[in-house]
Design goal:
The protein has two domains: 149 residues; 79 residues, no CATH class. 68% of the residues lie in helices and 2% in strands. The protein is elongated and about 70 Å long.
């Protein structure tokens, strides 16, 4: 009698929390060469390394808001792509893109958020920002161990937050007033600071907001001259926007 070839059973027992519904099934990774599996993980860091130098530099020149917002919007689409991807190659490309967006999402976003805050809150914000960003692995581990073994469900949470963040950034959050002041955009900074004061409930700052916004548009179109800017002895720009911002910060601190 000839020898019989043993049959290998690839069926997975999903009744145990040690088995996960993940990319192994979705991308058919059973017999994929090890270097391709390595690419899937390493492309995230390759993408980050690709943008880590030039994205923050460009954000210093063209502004924080749209680099950060654009990065979050692209991350939203990459997360949707991960859920729908039928191909290992597509997932590798998406992983590179997700990593590349980290420079705008994390690095530019951190500076962008800091520039809205007084020093006391900068420390708290920095700690919370990095704790939340780096707690993803811990949350994911608890999710798989105690909640569910389908990876896509927790991805939907990330998709939801990325979508909400994108909408809020586009509709409500202004450019960094500190960046505008550093770039000499004094009039635009004044409008931004008035918007922040309005959000903080400082009513006397809201009356002229529409007028200020219209004046900024006229200045940008060359229809009128920009307001006079007073240069201090140390070369720092001083104008009503600076005093407005200081008053907004002080009022916010007093309310707390």
């Amino acid at each position: 009698m000839g020898e019989t070839t043993p049959q290998i059973d690839f069926d997975i027992d999903y009744s145990t929390n040690l088995s996960l519904h993940n990319w192994v099934q979705q991308l058919n990774l059973w017999c994929v060469p090890s270097f391709k599996l390595g690419l899937l993980g390493s492309m995230y860091f390759a993408g980050w390394a690709f943008t880590v130098i030039w994205v923050p530099l460009l954000a210093d020149k063209v502004g924080r808001k749209w680099w950060f917002t654009g990065s979050v919007i692209i991350v939203f689409f990459t997360m949707v792509g991960f859920i729908l991807s039928p191909s290992l190659l597509i997932s590798i490309i998406l992983m590179f893109v997700a990593g590349a967006m980290n420079s705008g999402r994390v690095m530019v976003g951190f500076v962008y958020g800091q520039e809205f805050l007084v020093p006391y809150w900068q420390v708290i914000f920095g700690t919370a920002f990095h704790f939340i960003d780096n707690s993803t692995c811990l949350i994911t581990s608890f999710y798989f161990d105690f909640i569910n073994n389908h990876y896509s469900y927790i991805c939907f949470v990330g998709v939801f937050f990325a979508l909400v963040c994108s909408v809020v950034m586009v509709v409500f959050i202004p450019e960094s007033p500190l960046w505008q002041l550093k770039m000499g955009k004094i009039y635009s900074a004044q409008v931004t600071l008035h918007k922040i004061m309005r959000i903080n409930g400082i009513q006397d700052a809201t009356d002229d907001i529409d007028k200020l916004e219209q004046e900024v548009k006229e200045v940008n179109m060359g229809l009128r001259d920009a307001p006079n800017v007073e240069m201090g002895n140390n070369g720092n720009i001083r104008e009503s926007a600076v005093s407005t911002g200081r008053r907004s910060i002080l009022t916010a601190n007093e309310d707390e």
